[in-house]
Every structure is written in C-alpha cells, then in structure tokens.
Fold this protein.
Amino acid sequence: MLSDLEIPLLDTDADDPLGDYWAGLETLERAIAEYGLHTLVPGHGHVGDTAELARRLAADRRYLDALASGRQPDDERLRTPWLADAHRGHVERLSA
C-alpha cells in the first residue's frame, strides 16, 4: 500500500477485493490522523513526507475508482510490465 512504484495489488481470491483494499486505506488514514505522520516508509517504493502520503493516497484511490467503474486507469505505475499484467488480472477477476 502507498507505493509510488506499484499499483494497489488486490487479493483477488477475497470475496470483496476492492472493499478490502478500501478498508485498508481507511484504516491507515485513521491511524495517521490519530498518531500523525512525519515520514512514510512503504514496503515497496521510496520514502516520502506528508505531502507524498497525500499524493499516494490519491493515486491509489484513483486506481481503485477506475477499477470499480470499469475505466482504464491513467496511472504511470502501469508502465511496468508485471504491474500491467497484475492490472489485467484485477480487471478479469472483478468482471467475473
């Protein structure tokens, strides 16, 4: 989550992959609001500050919104071939 390099990678075996990811983002947002944030250190990607956190939350939301509405996301992270493949898997799973 919150990677500047990777799209949201959904658990496509879950009953509600989008809902689960949304819930995870909301949990992170609540924790950040409660405890504050000075530095973001994602599991994958670059370290960032609070402005970068806001940018990444917005990017993940735009990606999820596009998936939910059946639109092709305008997301530079999809230029990476394996992430484009993962995205196609998301689309297939969500359309099933």
Q: What stands out?
A: The first helix runs from residue 17 to 35. The mean pLDDT is 94. The CA atoms of residues 62 and 73 lie 7 Å apart. The chain is about 55% helix and 0% strand.
